[in-house]
Amino acid sequence: MTDNPPVLALEHIDKRFGTVQALSDANLVVRRGTIHAVLGENGAGKTTLMRVAYGMATPDRGVIRVRGQAVRLRSPADAIERGIGMVHQHFTLVPAMTVAENLALGRGGIAYSDDTSPPLQDLTTITGSSIDVHARVSDLSVTAQQRLELLKVLARNAEILILDEPTAVLAPAEVDDLLRRLRGLANAGRTVVLVTHKLREALSIADDVTVLRQGTISRASTRAEVGEDQLIEAMLGRRPTGPNVTARAFSPGQTLIAAHDVSIVDSRGLPRVRNATFEIRGGEIVGVAAVDGSGHRELLRAIAGRLAITSGTLSLPASVGFVPDDRHRDGLVLAMSLVENYALKGAGAGRGVIKWREAASAARQIVEDFDVRAESVDVPAMTLSGGNQQRFILGRELQGMPTVVILENPTRGLDIQASLDVRARLVATCSKGVAIVFHSTDLDEILAISHRVLVVYAGVVREVKPEIDLVGRAMLGAA
User: pTM for the complete prediction?
Assistant: First the structure.
């Protein structure tokens, strides 16, 4: 790398959790005023390394240096005091509080009541969007919440920003906008550490790249010294196996979902879906493309049987699998074991005594079939990495071959190989006559495996030919 001195350095970091060696002699050198991408498979140690940098985990061995000085980070408060801030993949906002109140928490209790305050002006400059300081966080879109998380960090005057998968909830145009603004922060002297699974994002914006594999550093170089193929090989130790599957050819079966003039109104009386009419047939994969807040979430949950419609008719089969977007809130009870989480499948629909032996056997089968990396099915779900949690949920919902499977961001948080495996499983499941309906924030993923694409914009649902330009324009409301 160049002579630009490091503003953050983690040297020879070891960290063990029980019998799992999460990090082994890991090193990270981040130069001031740069964007540094951190890549790796699920379970490679990325999050653990970032938690060490943010004072959330104490290393068993190694040294942390901030601006060249060795420091001990006993908590995030120590990191914040030294100008380090972190935007987590799963939001840390208080939903019942307003924007101003959440900002006050981020600034040690200093609240601003109007949108001309310095933090709100920063938000407009950095995220390109104003925000109602009086709005409750629970009423904000996911995109607005993500921007508020970034604002909280900036409000603490953080000079070193750690962002964990910040583009996971953004549409393509919003991703480009955020990356431009991150570049602006770096050009202004701040430093950005970007944890991402999206190689193209990393290659498009990063100055430096560090790749972890199985807790160790497999590559550290400048962006100019590395290409996509080299990064993939550094992440996996090999080229990814299996084709990048597509699902273009299909023979549609009988209609399994039929919607006619379906409308959905939210708890505030605002329309979320407007007079939607469509059919979903067996043996097809239907991708749902939309920017955040367009109504696609309500649509998916309605056809998954999790949300009542306001008007119209909606015909659904008896057996519907559902993989939610927020695995921590809606997919798992983190304190429960994998066996107990398996037993929750279909909770509320079944009655009687739980057959624990059968549940344990089924959970073990999921762990084996879906390559869930867990010490046993008796460990709490919280001990698994995000990607392994996602694989377990997917396996639970696909087991038993439901008639229809509804998925919200099924590969969110998964690495390259795991994402390819999920795509292959969806295509294989579809080939057996199951209808697959899924939304992804990755438009390329939707176009890769969908037979048909439904675009939702401002609550209006329409089918669009699966071509990137046409779908992209429809997502923004263009004709």
Answer: 0.64
